[in-house]
Amino acid sequence: MIGGVFVIALLSCSVQMLKAFGIGYSTPTLASVMSDLLPAYTSILAIIFGFEKLDLRVKSSQVRYAGIIVSVTGAFIVTLYKGLPITLVSLPKKVSAADQLLSSMQSNWVLGAFLLSSCSFCLAVMLLVQSRVVRDYPGEVITVALLRNIFVTILSASISLIAEKDPNAWKLSLNMELMAIGYSALFANSIGRGVHLWAIRKKGPVFVAMFKPLGIVIAVIMGVTFLGDTLYLGSAIGAATIVVGFYAAVWGQAQEKKMVEDCPTSSRESSSPRVPLLHSKSTQV
User: Membrane-spanning residues where (predicted)?
Assistant: First the structure.
């Protein structure tokens, strides 16, 4: 188990570094687009390594993978298409940071896109490794989460000590930066990773990856409700597309699970040698 958890921690550090460098070479918008590739990467790798079975002759499998494709398409619509404003706010119009970054996009955005795509690929691999670890040790989910956080801390601290030469960069003050670090440590790395491991053990890596585009819908709703952001047509269309694809994928997976559960029962009943073929006819006579 220790070796598998160390691999998970190593992949987690790789994901964080690839995402940071990718955003530095490109834009946050491109990072959002590339992160939407996670369900596709996870589905492909799960089929290749035998975590999932692909049978396009079955209707539930067709609906499931079509839902994943539709959900990823909706995430691309939210990210790349703005459209006309639907709700207007009374705040003065300002140029967003994303627009400024897009206007000053660096010439090496291809390298940034490659790094961000590699980030999503490593995250998909990490989900599969986590699935194998929690499957082999079903009762050790909390232990796996604890060991992962310890290994990630050691690896991140070692890399930071080598890469960061300025000692002032390690100073923290009571400001929004410290609050963001505390929030990330409590919810993202502790509670979030524990829930991820539990969900992977129950439903598998593809099910967890399907929720990635759904986070964009939640971000749009929270931004409009609490931050007063303007809701644009592209966000509404993309959010609706993501929801349709998400529910289609969940319905397809539920039908596949039902078929797997019903298959052994039906096969046992049909192959039982104790049931007389002329039982009903003999009772009538």
Answer: 30-51, 63-81, 109-129, 141-163, 178-199, 206-226, 232-250
Instruction: Sort 132 into a burial class: Cβ within 10 Å, 0-12 / 13-18 / 19+.
Output: middle
Is 273 within the bounds of a domain?
no
Q: Is residue 171 part of a domain?
A: no
- pTM beyond 0.85: the answer is no
Q: What is the residue range of 212's domain?
A: 2-162+188-261
Number of residues that make up the chain: 285
Q: Could you give the number of structural domains in the chain?
A: 1
What's the Cα-to-Cα distance from 219 to each of 22, 95, 98, 205, rounded to whole Å?
A: 21, 19, 15, 23
Interval 174-205: pLDDT, tens = 777 788 778 877 877 777 777 878 888 887 88
Cβ atoms within 10 A of the Cβ of 42, count?
30
Give the tokens for residue 10.
């190593």
Q: Name the phi and psi angles at 85, rounded to 5.
A: -70, 140
Handedness of CA 166, 172, 177, 183 (dihedral sign): positive
pLDDT for position 174: 76
pLDDT at 32 exceeding the cut of 80: no
Position 279 in a domain:
no
CA quadruple 196, 197, 203, 204: dihedral sign: positive
What pLDDT band is residue 122 in, cutting at 50, 70 and 90?
very high
Angstrom distance (rounded) from CA 65 to CA 250: 10
At position 230, the amino acid (one-letter code) is T
